[in-house]
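Chapter review: from sequence to fold.
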Amino acid sequence: MRLPARRRSRVLLAGALVVLVAVASTGTWLLVRDSSEAADRSTATVTTQTVRETVTADGALAARTTSDEAFAVSGTVTRVAVVEGDKVAKGDVLAAVDDEGLVAQRTAAKSSLDAAESQLDEDQDNGASDVQVAADKTAVVSAQATYDDARQAVEDATLRASIAGTVTSVGIERGDTVGSTASPDATGDDAATTATISILATGRYDVVATVAADDVDRLKKGLQVEIAVTGVTETVYGTVSEVGLVAQANDSGAAVFPVTIEVTGRRKDLFAGVSATATIVVKQRDGVLTVPSGALTTEDGTTYATVVDGDEETKVEVEIGEAYGMDTEVLAGLEEGDTVLLPTLRLTDGGDGPQDGELTFPGGDMPQFGTNGGGPGGPTVVEKP
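The token string follows.
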């Protein structure tokens, strides 16, 4: 009994949609018009390629080096030489404290050192006992240490940048008291500040990211990384420098592990805080023989491909390995350069009448879906009134 035309259209079109989904899931298919014999077959070539296994990690750029500069001596700030955003070189002056008292201490320490050295010289010239000379030498050593400390304190009264970079924060201002001499309970003008001037080194960056718990065991220091940075068109490269051992929870509550990636070289086009996605290469193999996954069919647990040689088509058994994207590794059964048949959906125009179509698969016995919703069968014909 033939279905009414409109109902038949709905049923057969639904069957066609299932077929298209099934074919698309195999990885490769082609829709062609039956306008020439060349359009009847779609083929691909078995090739060798480099394949990789990767782990993806999302994170953000961070300056590899930062420094919080603080005074090593006590005093009142008399000068602040930088503001947030300033570029500084290593050794540039950042700020200074009143050094009058420190200079006086240095002068006194120098006098004590001179006196100790004079006493040693005098006792040695006068033939003093060995015990006395030893005591004099000890006094000289002590005086020298005191003088060295006093001289360093004067130098420390001027705060200098220990690295080159950009000033990101300035936590002091003129008139502040810094250091350890102020009372911890002091307030107002008598309170000492421990605030610092922060510098972020530019040019060298890390990516601070996280990976899923299932992937962390695959990572190790030294793995190569390709990094996609927001706003940067070219690929940025780096290496894994650290893999964290302590899990933390992400926004969804899942366990993730921290990973630090060292960006290769100096970069002027990168900025701290910008988001980045890292592709970590955990395994790479060269010269892997592959075939498009869509060229393969499976029957009773055995995998086949259809090899095309001119007008001849030969169904061959294929031993396969890992799947890599849309391709599958070939372990046996095919050779580099072989031409294999891909599934093809052919549509033929019937003039002003119905359009007939036929879906063909390499190997011939790919499961088909008929218009009655059944299982494996012959090629499915798609009819539209």
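Two observations follow directly from the output. The longest helix spans residues 130-156. DSSP finds three helices and 27 strands in the chain.
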